[in-house]
């Protein structure tokens, strides 16, 4: 079930592109990638599913709005987890999926958590990698965060994107920024860049992601709100964390969050933040037949 079949869907914010594998009628799994990643994030994991014989799912990995080859949000719109919930539901609607499972990594796992909590009647199962719920903010930092985000947003227009002469420097940049191997970084870069015309005959490549994605989040939930959100995820859930943990989601906090799931379990694997790309065999083994249990796709 190599994740190589491209697709395009039209939703209210614009055109969504992505990658798909599997056959219609199989259990439906919507895969949501991490921040500044794209659908290619799930290519190694899909290949491992194929190697181990897990062919029985319909895996759809969209480029989320503002990422990869998908449309950016319109001017004046704000990228937020809450707004992304509607984009995910719009994608599912465009696919004709009433009920489905969610597979998310990092930002995608956070968004998937909100969808599962907010629309329990539509989400059958949740597999979250390296995130659960949302990143909390201390209440006393609310005003400062809002001011910083507003200032950064007002200063963004007019800034030019870096143009690379070819994709190799971008591959090295992703390897350094995300502690990725060359093969994983190349997958993300090849789908996450676009050719541009330069002055005269010179051209190059720039990131296709929306620069607004780099802006600070204007408002975050408090820790109490995050805990209530996670406790509201009613479907069977499995969380896969990497060891060592990320600084922004340390122990014991992340294990405490996983323990709040009414029907959840936690798996910890050695590796880095992109372990689903760097060690897909271990992650596929940890997923096992999770998506095949009690799956009832629409006829």
Structural summary, described in words:
Strand 9, helix 8 and strand 10 form a beta-alpha-beta unit. The radius of gyration is 19 Å and the shape is globular. It has one domain: 3-Layer(aba) Sandwich (Rossmann fold), CATH 3.40.50. The longest helix is centred in the N-terminal third of the chain and has 15 residues. The protein has an eight-stranded mixed β-sheet, sandwiched between helices. It has a two-stranded antiparallel ribbon with strand order 7-8. By secondary structure, the protein is an alpha/beta fold. It has ten helices and ten strands.
Offer a concise description of the structure.
The protein has 299 residues and is of the alpha/beta class. It has helices spanning 43-51, 81-95, 107-118, 142-155, 168-178, 182-192, 223-231, 253-259, 275-278, 280-287, and strands spanning 5-11, 14-21, 28-32, 58-62, 100-105, 123-129, 193-197, 203-207, 237-243, 264-270.
Could you spell the SSE succession in H and E letters? EEEHEHEHEHHHEEHEHEHH
CATH architecture: 3-Layer(aba) Sandwich
Largest sheet: 8 strands, mixed
CATH topology: Rossmann fold
- The side-by-side strand order for the widest beta sheet comes to 1-2-4-3-5-6-9-10
Q: How much helix, percentage-wise, in residues?
A: 25-40%
* CATH homologous superfamily placement: Alpha/Beta hydrolase fold, catalytic domain
Mean pLDDT: 93
Rounded to the nearest angstrom, the radius of gyration is 19 Å
């Amino acid at each position: 079930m190599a994740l190589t079949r491209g697709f395009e869907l039209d939703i209210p914010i614009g055109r969504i592109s992505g990658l798909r594998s599997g056959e219609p009628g199989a259990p439906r799994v919507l895969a949501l990638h991490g921040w500044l990643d794209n659908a290619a994030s799930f290519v190694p994991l899909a290949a491992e599913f194929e190697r181990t014989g897990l062919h029985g799912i319909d895996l759809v990995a969209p480029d989320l709005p503002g990422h990869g080859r998908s449309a950016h949000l319109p001017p004046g719109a704000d990228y937020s987890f809450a707004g992304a919930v509607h984009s995910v539901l719009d994608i599912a609607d465009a696919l004709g999926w009433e009920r489905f499972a969610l597979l998310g990594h990092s930002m995608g796992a956070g968004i998937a958590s909100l969808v599962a909590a907010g629309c329990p009647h539509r989400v059958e199962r949740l597999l979250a990698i390296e995130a659960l719920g949302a990143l909390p903010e201390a209440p006393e930092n609310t005003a400062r965060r809002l001011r910083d985000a507003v200032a950064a947003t007002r200063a963004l227009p007019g800034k030019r994107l870096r143009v690379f002469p070819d994709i190799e420097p971008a591959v090295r940049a992703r390897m350094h920024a995300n502690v990725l191997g060359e093969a994983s970084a190349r997958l993300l870069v090849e789908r996450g860049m676009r050719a541009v015309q330069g002055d005269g005959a010179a051209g190059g490549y720039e990131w296709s992601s929306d620069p607004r994605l780099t802006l600070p989040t204007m408002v975050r939930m408090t820790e109490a709100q995050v805990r209530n959100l996670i406790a509201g995820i009613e479907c069977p859930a499995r969380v896969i964390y990497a060891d060592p943990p990320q600084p922004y989601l340390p122990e014991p906090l992340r294990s405490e969050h996983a323990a709040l799931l009414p029907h959840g379990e936690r798996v910890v694997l050695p590796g880095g933040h992109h372990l689903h790309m760097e060690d897909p065999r271990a992650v596929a083994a940890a997923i096992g037949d999770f998506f095949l249990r009690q799956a009832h796709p629409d006829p």
